[in-house]
Amino acid sequence: MKPVHVIGGGLAGSEAAWQVARAGVPVVLHEMRPGRMTQAHVSARLAELVCSNSFRADDPENSAIGLLHEEMRRAGSLILACADAHMVPAGGALAVDRGAFAAAVEATLIATQGVTILREELTALPPEDWDSVIVATGPLTAPPLAEAIRQVTGEESLAFFDAIAPIVHRESIDFGIAWFQSRHDKAGPAGNGRDYINCPLDRAQYYAFVAALLVAEKTDFRPWEKTAPYFEGCLPVEVMAARGPDTLAYGPMKPIGLRDPRHPERRPFAVVQLRQDNHLGTLYNMVGFQTKLKHGEQTRLFRTIPGLEQAEFARLGSLHRNIFLNSPRVLDPLLRLKAGPRLRFAGQITGCEGYVESAAIGFLAGRFAVIERRGGNPVLPPPVTALGALLHHITGGAKIETFQPMNMTFGLFPDLSDSSLKKGRERRQAQCRRARYALTDWLALKAVPDG
């Protein structure tokens, strides 16, 4: 049997390759690292997490992304299995030890029969005899391949900036000031209600920090970068601050659900939270502090935060340019390129945003490729499921004229037939129940035929 070729060894590519191989179809996974690195990766590991270590909320009853977690688990996702095996405390979120997670994904693929991993860069579209290709090169697609994709789609690749948050050594944090607590003491799947480090700011400290943030030196833009918009779900902290002096206090620095145990009678005016980044608990990332500040400015300014005066940084924040397709225009419902159906796209290059969303589209691309290789006709997941809602959005549900990267949200789901349900928890839970039943029926269809 001819192999399916997967280009790109990130979350989507790794998930796609796993789904193809576990169904008994040979797969060749092409990854350009370490021969060619990106602006954001620091290793050659497959499935390296380059931004946060969080897969976000893990609540399948009330959260759209939590529902997607559950659906991926039920469908046999490699990415979710490895995330569950290497989770670290993060309140109600699913966060992982990023090094151990990537190592587990890579080790699993290496050990899986039928998987061939080639460390090579493709600088042009694949040769014609590759009749089934999944392009999962992500938002950091190398320029030569990006240009080849642009030419075949006839579309200008859209672009936005994605920023990375700093990581701090725990031992350098002053716990005479900082304390451990999750918002509202919420304990997640690997936590105990004390999963975040909190650094409090009073009113004067907060406004002084915002003022300093606004005048700090930022990374210079190259001419071609100046018109690329930011993704709203991952704004640099200084961009948020520029929208108004109180923006951060109502955003990543909001003090809701937190009390300093040394001063329980008053709530901090603002709080900087840090989330565990590895199993050892030695590294913590600054939640919501993606930034394009120059490195020297980051060190100087972030050490003015109470509790971080002596902070030592394992990694400083950075900024990189992401690209994505106008997928509703150029892809069909099975993620195939309309101008060349042998090419299927997956992951963030399709305009989904987020780790699990990227893996989910990789999961679907792999499943679809397997069914086609065996001569079957893929059945789309129902649009009332998280998988189906996300797929529908990027392949036709979104407006072509205004298409932008999107995280998993209940706004992507069809309306409930019961209009009496009010918005809020009751409605969200009803949507999750509906999705759960629909996924059961879809999985029972045996979406991947027996070999």
| General shape | globular
Number of individual domains: 2
pLDDT < 50 stretches = none
Largest sheet: 6 strands, mixed
Would you identify the CATH architecture of the largest domain? 3-Layer(bba) Sandwich
Number of helices: 12
The total beta strand count reads 17
**Oligomer, anyone?**
single chain
Output the structural class.
Answer: alpha+beta
Percentage of residues in strands: 15-25%
**Lateral strand order in the biggest sheet:** 6-2-1-7-17-16
Distance between the termini: 11 Å
Detailed description of the structure:
Strand 16 and strand 17 form a beta hairpin. This protein is 31% helix and 16% strand. The model has no long low-confidence stretch (mean pLDDT 92). The protein has helices at residues 11-22, 64-75, 78-85, 98-111, 143-153, 203-215, 237-242, 295-302, 327-330, 355-373, 386-397, 425-444; strands at 4-7, 27-31, 54-57, 87-88, 93-96, 115-119, 133-135, 158-164, 167-169, 179-180, 196-201, 270-276, 283-286, 313-315, 318-324, 336-337, 340-345. The longest helix has 20 residues, at 425-444. It has 12 helices and 17 strands. It folds into 2 domains: 4-157 and 325-444, FAD/NAD(P)-binding domain; 163-319, Elongation Factor Tu (Ef-tu), domain 3, CATH 2.40.30. With 451 residues, it is of the alpha+beta class. A 6-stranded mixed β-sheet has the order 6-2-1-7-17-16, with helices on one face. The chain has a 6-stranded antiparallel β-sheet with strand order 10-11-12-13-9-14. Helix 2 (64-75) runs parallel beside helix 10 and helix 3 (78-85) packs across helix 4 (98-111).
